[in-house]
Description:
- By secondary structure, this protein is of the alpha/beta class.
- It folds into 2 domains: 5-111, Beta Barrel (Elongation Factor Tu (Ef-tu), domain 3), CATH 2.40.30.10; 125-239, Nucleotide-binding domain of ferredoxin-NADP reductase (FNR) module (Rossmann fold, 3-Layer(aba) Sandwich).
- The chain is 24% helix and 35% strand.
- The protein has 6 helices and 12 strands.
- It has a 7-stranded antiparallel β-sheet. The chain has a 5-stranded parallel β-sheet with strand order 10-9-8-11-12, sandwiched between helices.
- A hairpin with a 2-residue loop joins strand 1 (17-30) and strand 2 (33-39).
- Helix 5 packs parallel to helix 6.
- The longest helix has 14 residues, at 184-197.
- The chain is globular.
- The relative contact order is 0.14.
Amino acid sequence: MAKKGWEGAVLKLYRAKDYTFTVLDAEPVTDHFQRVRVSGGGLLAHHELHPTMWVRLWFDHPEGKAHQRAFTLVDADVAADEFTLEFAIHDGVASRWALAAQPGDTIEASLQGSALTLPSPAPSAYVIAGDIASLPAINSLLDAIGDVDAHVYLEWVHESDRTLPVRSRSRDRVTWVARERSGEALVEAVTKAPGEIGVDASSLYGWAACDAVSTRAITKVFKETYGLPKGSIKTLGYWQP
C-alpha cells in the first residue's frame, strides 16, 4: 500500500478509524456502473449503521501516493459485517480497481465524518439533487426519510445511467436531467423545483451531491432562492469537473 500522505495525516488527527475490506464478489450493473461486495473487517461491529454512511477507500496511484475516494455503504448486512460499494465507471484509479476486483482482494479504508442526522420535525418535502456517483447515497437517503415526499433530480451522462435503480416510492418524483453546459441544467432544475412542487420553498430540506462546481451553485440556491437555514441543507461536492 502506498503512503497516504497529508490526507492520511489529517484523517489521523481527526481520529479516523482504519479498516481492511476484503472483496467477496463483483458484478457490472451497466457498462458504466460496477458493484463490489466486501466484508468490512469489523467496521459494522464498531460503528452503528446510519443513512448515507460512507467510507474513504485508499487506492494505489502510479505516482506512488495513495489516493482516497468516498463511497456509500449499500445493502449492508450488519450481522455479517458485509456491504456493497458501487462505482460510477470512468477513467480513474477507483474505477480500474473496481473493474479488476476479484474475491479475496483487499483494500484499505478509513471512516471519519460520515454522520447524517435527519431533520426533526420533518420538512414538507425533500429536494434531492445528484448524479450517478451519488446515487448510492441518494438511495440510502430515500430508504430513511419515512413518510415525506422526495423530489429527486438525477443528472445522467450515458443512456444506461437512466436504467439504474432508484429506490423511490410511489409518492416520490424522479426527474432525470441530461448533463448539459457543465452541469448548469441540473442547477436550473433545482432552482425551479419549489414552483413545480407547489410548496413554500422555506419549508423544504435540500440535499445535493454532485460535481464541486454544481454543488456550490445548488447550495447557493438552497440558501438564497429557497431561503433555507443551515440546518435544512446538506451538500457535498463529490468530484472536480
